[in-house]
Amino acid sequence: MIRSHCIAQKMKIAAIMTCHNRRNKTIAAISKLHEAAEAAGIAPSVWITDDGSRDGTRDALLKLDLAVNVIDGDGSLYWGGGTYKAFQAALNARDDFDFFLLLNDDTDLYPGALVKLLDCYTAGRGRDKPRIVVGATVGVNSEDCSYGGLIRGRILKKMSFRRIGIKQFSVECDSMNGNCVLIDKASVAILGPNDPTFKHTLGDLDYGLRAKRSGIEILQSAGAVGVCERNSIPGSYLDTSLPLKRRVKLMAGVKGFPFPQWYIFCRRHGGGLWIYHLLMPYINFFWRHLTRNLRLNVQR
Q1: pLDDT confidence bin for 4, thresholds 50/70/90
Q2: Which of 23, 64, 82, 116 has the fewest Cβ atoms surrounding its Cβ within 10 A?
Q3: Angle at 107 between CA 2 and CA 7, to 5 degrees
């Protein structure tokens, strides 16, 4: 831990965030980030896109007595577009940041989170090899992993990803959720910011897979680094209590499983079986809906 504190004092970190209409959560996340930064001996700068909030988020951000740079959005950017704008703004500042920290605005870091991430980054390696460190999170009042590093399936399951879970040691990943990710400048020099083609989903998966393909090591740090509640199923396209027409509309939406973006993702990462991977989620969706209705009719 002493090693991390000594190194951290020399580090410049840009936290990359985006937000929309959840002022209290956003301010809490930034406050927790600065508590973790203080514990690590770091004074980070925050680069955050306020994507057209109407609840006073922007004013609250500007009133913070912290290094917060607010980039304005029009409400149509979502996670992918907002993160890209904030990431690009930090790069354009030419401050020669050592690290870029992707951080969701509903993620509350523990006080030792950045120390833990830096420990993982520096452990057992030469400083010349690019590395990304993922921080796993847990749900509120839960010890179960909500987001973190991902392991990719093989062959017919190549487009399926499972979370590694909370481990007491660092684990190599195939990709990651983008809720808390420490990216070194060598990796950013290779990959640049996230691809805004993926407006809300798939962008973090795409970044991780491109990193892996480029020879960048991805590790999940030991333990959990903070709290972030998993997205709720009720009201989403996965909610089987909703009418099929409503579920299809949600699935096609930005926060669902939009076909144009999934097409690009499969072409980019699906290999020779990309058409199979492209079609299977939609086939499974309708098949499960049909078989569920058949079971309900039989039970009646």
Answers
A1: very low
A2: 64
A3: 20
Measured at the CA of 34, the angle between CA 192 and CA 118, to 5 degrees, comes to: 55
Kindly report the three-state secondary structure assignment for every residue of 271-289: HHHHHHHHHHHHHHHHHHH
> Does residue 17 contact residue 103 with C-beta atoms inside 8 Å?
yes
Tokens at residue 274, please?
């990309």
CA distance 271 to 253: 26
**Whole-angstrom distance, CA of residue 28 vs CA of residue 107:** 9
Whether 137 shows a pLDDT value over 60: the answer reads yes
- Strands (DSSP E) along the chain, which ranges? 13-19, 45-51, 68-73, 99-103, 108-109, 131-138, 145-147, 149-152, 161-163, 171-172, 175-176, 180-184, 217-227
Token pair recorded at residue 172: 């190599």
Cα 42 from Cα 1, distance rounded (Å): 14
Q: Are 47 and 14 in contact (CB under 8 A)?
A: yes
Supply 237's token pair. Answer: 């396209």
Q: Which of 224, 185, 190, 220 is nearest to 207 (CA)?
A: 190
CA distance 199 to 265: 12
pLDDT, one tens digit per residue, over 262-285 is: 999 999 999 999 999 999 999 999
Q: How remote is the C-alpha of 266 from its chain's centroid?
A: 19
Residue 219 · residue 171 · CB < 8 Å: yes
